[in-house]
Amino acid sequence: CLMHEFSCTRGRCVSRHFLCDKIFDCPYGDDESPQVCGKCRFNEYRCKGERKKCISNYFVCDSKADCPVGDDEDSC
Ligand SMILES: [Ca+2]
Ligand SMILES: [Ca+2]
Known about the structure:
The protein is mostly beta strands and about 80 residues long. It is about 5% helix and about 15% strand. The chain has a two-stranded antiparallel sheet with strand order 1-2. It is elongated and about 50 Å long. It starts with a strand and ends in a 20-residue tail after the last strand. One calcium ion binds near residues 62, 66, 72 and 73. It is a single-pass membrane protein.
């Protein structure tokens, strides 16, 4: 792949403009994977606030603030 391209698992190259645009451009969608996009995993909650920490869903509504601003306990 070229400098401005992202290499998919199956050796295909896509432009980096297509990364994290919610459309699968790689055959297996790895241009939208959490590792590439820096999002939380499907079983994690994304905290609000500047740091956007990821916590396990297990810690949402456990009566203890795990996010920096405690928003994991806000909508229980
Ligand atoms: Ca994409
Ligand atoms: Ca919590």
